[in-house]
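User: For my dataset I need records formatted as: sequence, then structure tokens, nothing else. Please produce one.
Assistant:
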Amino acid sequence: MLQSSVAAPDYFLRHFQALCSALSRYRDLLNTDELALLGCPQTLDINALRLLVRLLGRRGSYFRISLLSYADIDDLKLAIEELTQAGFVRSAHAIQFDNAGTCGTELSRLLTKDELYKSLAIVSPSNLPRNSTKANLVEFAEQGSLWPAIWNLFANDVIFVNADKSFGTLKLLYFGNSWQEPSEFVVTELGHREYESYPLDVAHRRFDSRADIDLALFCAEVTVLLEDRKKLDVARLYELENQVLALSATLVGDVKSVSLRRIDKLRTRLGREFERRNLPEAALRLYAGVSLPPARERTIRSLEALQRYHDAFHLAQQTLAAPKDDEEHRACLRMLPRLAKKVGAQWQAEPYCEPLSQHIVLSRVQSAQR
């Protein structure tokens, strides 16, 4: 239990130390980078540790050094040098982008409109209107493939936090999921939320193998991609399908049921995205073999979209005969009349059975008069 008040200036550091100290039971499942981050409270100088924890708590992985200012960090430059030597951050000069698009995405976030305008004037003198919007400037930089040149202008002022991925793993192990954040410590200390206490030892681990951890991280990554559907093109969707199906094929033998449920839920969600894009064949490949609802319902709808009406009708009858939950039962009742008509079959739902009821009329009790 954390006893100190969140009003203390170093509360963020204390929370990070508590997270790390609780994960010693997972040391045998961590890689070299994750072990280094887990042990950094004992290996880093206090200023470097404070900077690392603050950067890990911020959005994004790229930061402008000139915009970093923390009252509790005495020497920012020295802290960055120590983190660089430890491998937790990298200088912009050491970063190689796979494509100019990635470079542009990061720079457009880091630079103000005025900074971007002045940078474009340096790398590609032109008569850009001074009142151009930032979106216009970004488009101009992309069309002229100017992002690498602009990046070089700011290389001395940008650092990349190399520990983000390892921190994501530690958070997963501590919270048991990928969506909770260290802000939960604050909420708990303020008394707004309370969690049950349980032993923090090897016998009470949520993950028993590295494969379980990697699966959970992969599912979390794909879930984030699916949440931003507009940026996910069809080619990337097919890549994800191949990855998910290949991963599913490895989950045989003695596998924890939570891992099977996790991959089955991901297959259903990915299949639903293929349906939205009118690609029912791919959706069927993902639904095949998934037992968790609503996989069978979605399979029926995909078969119908492919005009395989007899297959859809047959599966809907099977599902109605042995539904896994109430939603499956109701979905089949909605689909079967339509499917029966398409296959030229007679089908009628069983009459609704109203439960027995008995009405009792209670007499009003008159209150005694004083």
